[in-house]
Design a protein that fits this description.
This protein has about 120 residues and is an alpha/beta fold. The chain has a single domain, classed as 3-Layer(aba) Sandwich (Hypothetical Protein Ychn, Chain: A), CATH 3.40.1260. It contains four helices and five strands.
């Protein structure tokens, strides 16, 4: 029986390496046929905003990592409704070309459904 794996993406996309490392860990796990689910929560919801320009602060865009998710079998990601509301964002503002974005009302209950959680 396959264990369920969740990547909890809580970090803003730029300012430290955790957001990039989290997405790279997800891609590596998916390449090894472990296809984790992703939940964007807290400042992690900013990773899903389109048209980011991190070159101004000397960073690479995370868009390539996000665009690669479907190539590794990840066609759906989850986003915490409370995190969006707290940051005055709506699900319609998020980039949705690469994958489906599914809102989660109770992230605690959602997380409890997984055997392992990687926290980034």
């Amino acid at each position: 029986m396959t264990k369920r794996l969740l990547a909890l993406c809580r970090q803003a996309p730029y300012g430290n390496a955790l957001a990039r490392e989290g997405l790279e860990a997800v891609l590596a796990a998916a390449a090894m046929e472990q296809a984790p689910d992703l939940l964007f929560s807290g400042d992690g919801v900013f990773q899903l905003l389109p048209q980011q320009s991190p070159q101004a602060i000397g960073q690479k865009s995370l868009q390539r990592n996000l665009q690669a998710l479907p190539m590794f079998g990840i066609e759906r990601v989850y986003v915490c409704n409370k995190s969006l509301a707290k940051r005055h964002l709506s699900i319609e503002q998020l980039a949705r070309e690469q994958f489906e974005i599914v809102p989660v009302a109770d992230s605690g209950a959602f997380i409890r459904n997984y055997d392992s959680v990687m926290n980034f």
